[in-house]
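Need a sequence for this fold. Nothing fancy.
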């Protein structure tokens, strides 16, 4: 965001991000922070300390050359640098206690805000980098609460009332054509994987106006879609067999109805909500069942930016961010809302909720754009090319300042812990 070059705006955003991050686990008892080893989560104390370390390194030491805060957390570099410490080793760090992590986070954050006052326009890039890194980890921490069936965060008491669905088109047709995909260097913060902007051509296609709903996906489940090998890719079928999956991971049938787990509570499945916590393999199998397909990443971006001039195509609806509650971001509703709700966030062509509510799987492998060069934080994108799948759009928990039409998320295709669903497409 262009505004983040203003120290006052950046300071307020950093304070907001830290409050959110600390609140995510603030309601848990110390024993609940002792989580079992899983490949898809981080130990809570390590993850919070890592967020602080990342901020300390990039905002205080990357160019200034200051010593790490060793008096607060000894030998923090090899312990908290995620590029160095193997994932299983993060569970074996007795020095990380609630008190030591809290003390470390307080000290590094005070120093960061002080350094921000002396920052230059060039160095503020790294303060924005640490802000967005913290926002992404906060979403991952919320995913951890869901994965481990822990209570939702205490700040959920401020959520807005759930909106009702509104009429929406079924499909929105796009004539295709050539467009400039990706970002250019400019006043806005840009992650390296968005660069460089390049010409791409897409053929005519139609995109579903709303994401696939629970009711639509339930029809696939009840038609024995998880047992029909012909609907699955070879890789997807291997995953399904290994996982023994017969429905999305947090669904279960009880007392004649389907339930879905939301953090530590089982609730009735809401038919109008977008299906969530399905992986790319499940999304593709549903698409074959429905005789449709996932959109490519290029098609998704083409649709999001259609009918918008290059100076006004940050969001599907235009230049300016919408008011809180007009789009399902920032945890405004505490959970996804109906897939056909919130018409104010429609794209210019009438595609609903392209940003927010649930991340959307695409058919595209995460790969560098032509001319890619890694940014200062080299580990952000480059290690994950060709093994991950692109998702677009953000989810109900994503911070609104983070996502836009060009923003690329990426996970391996078997991950179903992500707040992700999908919408379908067809070729014309």
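Here you go.
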């Amino acid at each position: 965001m262009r505004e983040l070059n203003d120290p006052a705006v950046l300071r307020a955003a950093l304070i907001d991000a830290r409050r959110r991050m600390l609140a995510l686990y603030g309601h848990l008892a110390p024993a609940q922070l002792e989580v079992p080893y899983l490949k898809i989560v981080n130990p809570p104390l390590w993850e919070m300390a890592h967020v602080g370390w990342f901020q300390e390194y990039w905002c205080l030491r990357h160019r200034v050359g200051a010593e790490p805060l060793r008096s607060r957390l000894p030998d923090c570099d090899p312990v908290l640098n995620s590029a160095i410490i193997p994932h299983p080793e993060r569970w074996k760090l007795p020095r990380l206690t609630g008190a030591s992590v809290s003390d470390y986070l307080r000290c590094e954050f005070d120093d960061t805000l002080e350094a921000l006052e002396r920052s230059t326009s060039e160095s503020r890039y790294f303060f924005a980098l640490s802000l967005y890194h913290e926002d992404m980890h906060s979403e991952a921490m919320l995913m951890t609460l869901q994965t481990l069936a822990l209570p939702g965060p205490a700040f959920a008491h401020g959520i807005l009332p759930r909106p009702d669905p509104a009429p929406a088109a079924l499909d929105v047709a796009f004539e295709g054509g050539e467009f400039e995909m990706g970002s250019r260097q400019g006043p806005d913060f840009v992650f390296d994987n968005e660069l460089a902007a390049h010409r791409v051509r897409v053929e005519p296609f139609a995109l579903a106006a709303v994401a696939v709903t629970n009711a639509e996906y339930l029809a696939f489940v009840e038609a024995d879609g998880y047992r029909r090998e012909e609907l699955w890719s070879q890789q997807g079928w291997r995953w399904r067999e290994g996982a023994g999956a017969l429905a999305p991971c947090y669904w279960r049938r009880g007392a004649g109805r389907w339930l879905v787990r939301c953090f530590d509570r089982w609730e009735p499945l809401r038919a109008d909500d977008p299906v969530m916590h399905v992986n790319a393999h499940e999304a593709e199998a549903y698409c074959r069942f429905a005789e449709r397909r996932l959109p490519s990443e290029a098609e998704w971006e083409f649709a999001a930016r259609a009918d918008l001039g290059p100076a006004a195509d940050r969001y599907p609806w235009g230049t300016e961010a919408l008011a809180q509650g007009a789009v399902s971001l920032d945890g405004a509703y505490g959970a996804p809302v109906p897939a056909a709700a919130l018409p104010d966030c429609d794209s210019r062509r009438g595609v609903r909720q392209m940003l927010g509510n649930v991340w959307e799987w695409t058919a595209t492998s995460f790969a560098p754009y032509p001319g890619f060069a890694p940014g200062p934080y080299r580990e952000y994108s480059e290690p994950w090319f060709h093994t991950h799948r692109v998702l677009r759009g953000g989810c109900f928990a994503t911070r609104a300042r983070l996502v836009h039409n060009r923003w690329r998320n990426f996970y391996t295709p078997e991950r179903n812990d992500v707040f992700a669903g999908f919408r379908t497409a067809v070729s014309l």
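For context: The chain has a mean pLDDT of 94.
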